[in-house]
Amino acid sequence: MSEHLLFLTGKLAEKQLNSILNKMQPSFTYTVHQLGLKVAALMTADMIGRRLTETFGADRIIVPGRCRGDLDALSVQLGVPVVRGPEELKDLPQYFGKAAQKPDLSHYQVKIFAEIVDAPNVSVAEVLNRAYYYKKQGADVIDIGCLPSTPFPQMEAMIQALKQEGFTVSIDSLDAQDLLRGGKAGADYMLSLHEGTLWIADEVAATPILIPERHEDLASLDRAIQIMQAKQRPFIVDPILDPVHFGFTQSIVRYHDVRKKHPDVEMMMGVGNITELTHADTAGMNALLLGICSELSINSILATQVSRHACRAIKEADLARRILFAAKQQDTLPKHIDPGLMALHETAPFPYTLTEIEELAEQISDPSYRIQTSDEGLHIFNRDGLHTATDPFALFPKLQVEKDGGHAFYLGVELARAEIAWQLGKRFTQDQALLWGCATDHAEQTVDLHSFKPAGTTLQKP
Fold first, then answer.
1. Delimiting residues of CATH 3.20.20.20 domain(s) in the chain
2. Per residue in 215-251, pLDDT tens?
3. Cis peptide bond N-terminal to 192, omega within 30
4. Phi and psi for 108 in degrees, rounded to 5?
5. Cα separation of 350 and 373, whole Å?
6. Amino acid 446: pLDDT
7. What integer pLDDT is reported at residue 461 of this predicted model?
């Protein structure tokens, strides 16, 4: 027996909701009930509790995605589970399809080593602050980066302070004495040893990351691997990722060759040579690099956040490793798993066509302005008409808000957001901040627009 759903909506959206459900040809039966208010997004749990007198035999009640209030309490009151649907009606097919089954992103395979590149010049207290920040961004290991020919008297205190706070620590240097000191101070990993410095691994318990003795000398890396295997010591291999135009493609080939020759060794990729040294948005780089790691079973990366354009690199790598792990587990493409790496664009930026917006505008009988976007541009409408443009300044003379500063300010902010969304191909939702995925650390701002917005504007779309 199929599930029967009750969809609650408002006057303006009722026709469109029925049309979308009819086209879906769903496996469930349904009832659409108009709750007696014009704009569905203004619906609240308390309002539903007061107005809904019949549940129409529903097994589940679907309310608009922007419905506010305690739905758990409402479910108890009505005796039927009440859940929020998508924020946009046009997303109902996706909501009831595969995308509704959100993948579990709590698991991952790749460890993130987050490097503090200038550690000799930083106090112990500041390193602890950075470590906690990097951990919040997703780091598993805090990498203490040494600097050539730079005294590092606080190294031991730094490592011990991190260990006391529960961090896993690596020491990062090509100087043998730095590595020896770091290992003796309690570092868990050493970056990096080669065939000529393997003796350090005999002096300390830290797990070494092995690199070729000379940049492309994979034979020396093979010999170092054999030595560590003979000693039955754990180790990680890093064939070294080179920057673009300085051996990048060939270095990818090296990773492939090492994995083919040593199918079971643990490997690391230092992704910073790409994210730091390429002036392009890093989210896509991290997605691609973590995809390579997923295919080659590279289970550690070394990430940095030095350049300002790479200031979210660890956070992006964290999400990328989770998305790639979920895709690999499900044997699917890394699509429609999580939108957090699509900061600039979205898969469905414009849910409504101009024709559909025109149909909606014809139903409006109040002076409140609604703002929407489509492929054609920006659209603002109320009972007095619909106006379309690609430049918000072209709309200003038609809005008649010259004498109302608060109203003009509000419409200016919303139209500016709409223009940015239209230009980039992002989803615009009136009265909500644009979503930038993991490209920002700042929480989405929520402002009580009622505190300054005058009559004649609307706080939600239908």
1. 111-330
2. 889 999 999 999 999 999 999 999 999 999 999 999 9
3. yes
4. -160, 165
5. 6
6. 42
7. 38
Which uninterrupted H or E stretch holds 172?
Answer: strand 168-172
Cα–Cα dist 262/269, whole Å: 15
Residues of the chain with CATH 3.40.50.11600: 4-100
CA distance 68 to 179: 56
Q: What is the DSSP string of 35-95?
A: -S-S-GGG-BHHHHHHH----TT-SEEEE-TT-BS-HHHHHHHHTS-EEE--SSGGGHHHH
**Residue given tokens 């054609």 in the structure block:** 376
Locate 84 and state its tokens. Answer: 């929020």
**Phi/psi of residue 47, each to 5°?**
-65, -40
- What is the rounded CA–CA span in Å between residue 69 and residue 67? 7
Tell me the C-alpha distance between 316 and 440, whole Å. 10
Residue 342 is encoded by which pair of tokens? 């699509």
CATH number for the segment(s) 4-100: 3.40.50.11600
Neighbouring residues of 348: CB distance < 8 A, sequence distance ≥ 6 = 90, 91, 94, 427
Q: Which residues pair with 60 in a beta bridge?
A: 5
For 204-247, where are the alpha helices, taking DSSP H only?
218-230
Q: Decide if domain 111-330 falls under CATH 3.20.20.20.
A: yes
Name the DSSP letter for residue 11: H
CA dihedral (117, 118, 120, 125) positive or negative: negative
